Amino acid sequence: MAEAHQAVGFQFTVRPDGVDLKLSQEVIKNIYLSGVTAWKKRAIQFKNGVLAGVYPASPSSWLIVVIAMMSSLYIRIDPSLGMIDAIKENLPHRSEIFCSHWSLQTCLTITLISIIGNTLYPTMSSLVKMFSGRRPLLYSFQASLPRLPVPNVDDTIQRYLESVHPLLDSEQYKQMEILSNDFKESKAAHLQRYLILKSWWATNYVSDWWEEYIYLRGRGPIMVNSNFYIMDLLYMTPTHRQAARAGNVVHAMLQYRRKLERGEHAPLRALGTVPMCSTQMERMFNTTRIPGIETGRKQLVHFRINQHSNHLVVYHKGRFFQVWLYTGGRHLLPSELETQFQRILNDTSEPQPGELKLAALTAGKRVPWARARIKYFSQGSNKVSLDSIESAAFFLTLDDEPQGYDPAITRSLDSYAKSLLHGKCYDRWFDKSFTLISYPNGKMGVNAEHSWADAPIVGHMWEYVLATDCFHLGYTEEGHCKGDVNKGLPYPTRLQWQIPKECQDVIGTSYLSAKQIADDVDFHGCLFSEFGKGLIKKCRTSPDAFIQLALQLAQFRDQGAFCLTYESSMTRMFRDGRTETVRSCTSEAVAFVRAMEDPSATRLAIFRKAADKHQNMYRLAMTGSGIDRHLFCLYIVSKYLGVDSPFLTKVLSEPWKLSTSQTPQQQLNLVDINKFPQYVGAGGGFGPVADDGYGVSYIIVGENLITFHISSKFSSPDTDSYRFGQHIWKAMVDIQALFKPENDKKTVEHSKHVHLENGKKHI
Predict the structure, then answer these.
(1) What is the set of active-site residues?
(2) What is the pLDDT of residues 659-684, one digit of tens each?
(3) pTM of the model
(4) Start and end residues for every CATH 1.10.275.20 domain found in the chain
(5) Cα–Cα distance between 59 and 534 in angstroms, integer?
(6) Maximum separation of any 2 CA atoms in the chain, in Å
(7) Which residues contact 168 (CB under 8 A, 6 or more apart)?
(8) What is the CA radius of gyration of the chain?
(9) Which residues is 708 bridged to in the sheet?
(10) 473 with 337: CB under 8 angstroms?
(11) With contact defined as beta carbons under 8 Å apart, do 493 and 388 qualify?
(12) CA distance readout (Å), 385 to 4, 321, 378
């Protein structure tokens, strides 16, 4: 999603000392019970680690091999073909028969498991179904996932040149060919060798550098520029009681976290069959981003879940509260969480000096925040309070202004999006893995930090939470959480701060910087309801290709020109895979857009050719043959080696004026949308990538709705998010109209066929 912003024009240099980037009793009882719970979790994690390690076999498979081998001993058959006799020669006389058989049995079991595990992925379509009879755990397939391959340099460069050809004039393209040929002949092979070497010892040759240089090394604000948001249900609000909704949602998140700790979630699979990497999910909870002045310190910290991290921190009207999530060795029930949150809402205390806008430090530039953290938050109550925030399961904001989609309010979706993305610039802790946002009218939402994972990972959790909230936990007739009210819980604890005037000045500066960014965000939410995935599939084309070509048409009509376009694709079919770029503005897409402006052109045939090209580009990106991650890593190697490459410098500095991403629906089994059409999510979005461009996120909801989240900057005279939304709407309708004669013809032929069949029946 928002990674395109960081992927443009970053620079770093290599120094001799490293890399620098320009980047009471009751209490004792509860502690005891928390410790017991923690050890239980460790035992479960160990067990699941063993089960995952031997998958697709099970520990009982070893016993089966033992029985088979011991039976062969009594009927005097040697299934080892002489291996047992060889083992006997090297063992003491008394134990030779016993140990030789057990050694062979163990080796045979391990060998079979290894062979099956390593052949599971290449023969995935048939073997996964065969060996998935035992319910696999979340990480069962991890060892079977292949490593991301390093593409051939010549192929990558050729695909790159093909991608920029429609965007350059003849002279510019000739110059780019010269640069690319010079790179191939002089430097490419040398740099490629280092990438191949890295691909041998690293599980993924891209992902660690991608996290480091695209996210963690950045020194600019992460609010808007990197963080993204996810919305609540679009039409439905289960309860309008703020504390109750927050209670259910937080409890559902705790259920999700427990299943995550135990590996009990079903493995993620593409097309329902091919396993995908799940490692990003490990840092979903109890994770925070730490600001750094220099780039040599660890900047993404995941806290182990224990008695010190089983809490969350709640922000409300400028105050920070710590709420424990466990009592008596169990999760707080939804009704208990509701009680705690209502206590916070009823609290009338004032913020401490400097507390109100403290979180603005996480919204502004990273270096001032890093220096303030070292100087003012490294000891005393400030350190204790900051540690509480950073080690919390997640951050919760009880907002004081209602938000959500309301068809009676003009552009209500736009206001909702801006609130989730940046809020007041000081009421979300942007460094946490995610901030859960609760509104007074019962609506919810999430603001997520981007470095630890990509949007589908957070989306997977959010789908589970919404379904659990609405269909499993539920509410009373009065809108409260179900269950008895426990008033004996200790009250939430206020975090204590001693913030001097100098630090308050830094907070004020960060706030003003962040507010300037937030005020410049122009957002528009477009609910396209003319048709959806159902009708597009009847046109025998990919919904994603259809939408991407509509975006190209909208872009041309809005700007009068084509531009470099970024579409995010996942590479999680490989170990530790994250994303790759699909360069959607192809020569075929350009030809289609020009045909749409020419009434005499054979538009439908040109559309199909462009759609097929897009699908092929997407497949290449998903299967490790993309363009941009390979060139990015070659650039990193060149900087480490001190090799100057005008070609790579040019490629890595190109702006993405149109950045796009689809929010996937991953767990369609959780909610039957046909039966409960009001329970649809609204997806999410991200901030504008280029100063003079657009960011577009979209989600295909069910069969008849597509939601677009469009962002740009007010400061650009050339962009307008609402106007672009209108162009998208018209482009979608215009493209669908190309299929009407074809669909009408099919309808007529179908009617004739039915008429003839009925006639035969009467005869």
Answers:
(1) 450
(2) 999 998 888 788 888 888 889 999 99
(3) 0.84
(4) 152-203+626-654
(5) 45
(6) 96
(7) 176
(8) 29
(9) 526, 698
(10) no
(11) no
(12) 34, 10, 10
